[in-house]
Amino acid sequence: MIKIKKRWEIPESEVTPEPLYRRRREFMQAAGTIGGALLLNPWAAAQASLAIGDYQKKAISVDEEITDEADVTSYNNFYEFGTDKEDPKRNSNRFKTDDWKIVVSGECEKPGTYGLEDMMKPFSIEERIYRLRCVEAWSMVVPWLGVPLASVLKSFQPTSKARYVGFKTLHDPVRMPGQQRSVLNWPYREGLTIAEAMHPLTILSVGMYGKTMPNQNGAPVRLVVPWKYGFKSIKSIVGIEFSETQPRTSWNIAAPREYGFYSNVNPEVDHPRWSQKRERRIGEIFKRDTLMFNGYAEEVAELYDDLDLAVNF
Ligand SMILES: Nc1nc2c(c(=O)[nH]1)N[C@H]1C(S)=C(S)[C@@H](COP(=O)(O)O)O[C@H]1N2
Ligand SMILES: [Mo]
Questions:
Q1: Fewest Cβ atoms nearer than 10 Å: which of 42, 66, 216, 311?
Q2: Residue 229 Cα, ligand 2 centroid: separation in angstroms?
Q3: Ligand 1, closest atom to CA 79?
Q4: Residues whose Cβ atom is located within 5 A of ion ligand 2
Q5: Which of 68, 69, 72, 77 to mutate to test the pocket of ligand 1 (most atoms within 8 A of CB)?
């Protein structure tokens, strides 16, 4: 059977740390020998080997070099742990994400409270590796581990009234000390149209660099929406709500003139206070041109055929 790869997918052998890859092959062989009847939870298996697998930067880039892991995990925006780029790493080291629950509500047939592991159980390791560009004033290329958000959302059976999906971060000022100050209207909220949420490039991510998600990057589960500015990729998700009307989003509430609902990467539309034409790739000295939809126009431009992107920024 020949599987045609989408251009953002990377062969698993190229991004999987060697020990994990070998263990997975052994696991597959073991599963094969007893007729595939092995009742091993692939999610648990992935977690176990990911914890062991020391990511070796073996990941050969398909078209762009992966950003240094140390940079991606030490230069962060995560206001729940402070507003400086160095704060999230420093202030999140004791954040516990055991027994994580997600409340699913609104326009769907299967609302309820789901444990993260149960939610992820149906998905195999093969679905979990993506290397995507992410962009803001800085940009990076990260090997995310995750599943298409669409696969997860479909399991909740959205109704025909579900035109949007809203997301919420944990609100717990004790565990997330940054929430003791009202720099944003807590909890952090984000949203997507149902078409954006169902797009195969929208990822529900549980890890990076062959490991479980570091706290500062949004443990235990976050969105990755690679054709949008970074703030759309909400971290530490505890709520998913299907709705008929457009959900409110934190940055739009905070500064509606500066941050619209769509927030697609668009070098042609300036932020009111700065140009969005160029970006600095972390680890590089010179800036580079920012691409329309962060280089994913081929995949996502059709979602916006009917929209004036200067108005719907
Ligand atoms: N809950 C929550 N999610 C969040 C943020 C935040 O402050 N809180 N910051 C956003 C912003 S502004 C960016 S640029 C990205 C940064 O993700 P990274 O630290 O993994 O690079 O996370 C986004 N998700
Ligand atoms: Mo950001």
A1: 311
A2: 7
A3: 7
A4: 77, 136, 230-231
A5: 77
Q: Is 87 among the domain residues?
A: yes
Domain of 250, CATH number, reads: 3.90.420.10
Residue whose CA is at the smallest distance from ligand 1 atom 10: 231
The answer to whether the bond into 19 is cis (omega within 30° of 0) is no
Looking at the domain assignment, is residue 218 inside a domain?
A: yes
Q: pTM for the whole thing?
A: 0.84
Count of domains forming the chain = 1
User: Could you tell me if residue 264 is inside a domain?
Assistant: yes
Rounded to a whole number, what is the distance in angstroms from the first to the last CA of the chain? 42
Dihedral over Cα of 169, 103, 245, 232: its sign? positive
Cis before residue 42, ω within 30 degrees of 0? no
Give whole-number Cα distances, 212 to 70, 128, 162, 232, 266, in Å: 15, 12, 31, 21, 31
pLDDT score of 311: 92
Domain that holds residue 192: 12-303
pLDDT digit string, tens, across residues 26-47: 434 433 332 232 233 334 444 4
Mean predicted confidence (pLDDT) in 145-166: 93
Cα Rg of the chain, angstroms: 19
Ligand 1 neighbours by CB, cut-off 6 Å: 76-80, 136, 169, 188, 217-218, 230-231, 233-236
Residue 188 CA: which ligand is closest? 1
Question: How far apart (Å, rounded) are the C-alpha atoms in residues 278 and 267?
Answer: 7
* Residues listed for the chain: 313
Flag whether 240 is in a domain. yes
